[in-house]
Amino acid sequence: MELKKITLRYEEYASLADLSPADRDLINHAIQASEKTYSPYSSFRVGATVRLSCGNIVTGNNQENAAYPSGLCAERVALFYAQSQFPESAVESIAIYASTDDFKMEKPVTPCGACRQVMAEYEFRHQCKARIIMANDNGQVQIVNGIENLLPLAFYLEELKKGSFKKPTEYNRRNITDEI
Ligand code: THU
Known about the structure:
By secondary structure, this protein is α+β, with helices and mostly antiparallel strands. Helices cover 22% and strands 21% of the residues. Mean pLDDT is 91; it is low at 173-180. Residues 39, 42, 44, 46, 62, 64, 71, 73-75, 96, 109, 111-112, 115 line the site of tetrahydrodeoxyuridine.
């Protein structure tokens, strides 16, 4: 037996003011999206913004349902819409913001397991790591570069089929422009 270790890395910021203008802009879009959720059951308002390699920005928010599992998280609403509209474009960044009137959030919101798996799929599809920017209403922000920092040992297509698929560690990070 060999014991192996995995190291996860994330950046932590105490305030939105410490972020680049591009990241702040993405969070501001997520804040706006979080104001339009349909979340009568949890009262948890989540907004997500996807920045694509083509330059487009797509937002989504959580949509709940009386049949609870029929609802969908903000991240997947935004990611599925983005990929349905711009299938050729890689997901460069995704910002997630959450707030609730029920309690004070101690930490930035982190995506659920199913949303992490969807992020892994699109990184794999476009061979491009995504920056995942997680925020809350205290202004705290955590950022990871690449889903492997939130979902180590993820399940990928290469597990299903034999082929010449690149492993996530071989992705080329695309340059994220800071033009905003
Ligand atoms: N939710 C999201 O939309 N994204 C997350 O990252 C965490 C949870 C939603 C799902 C549900 O509508 C509510 O928050 C409570 O789980």
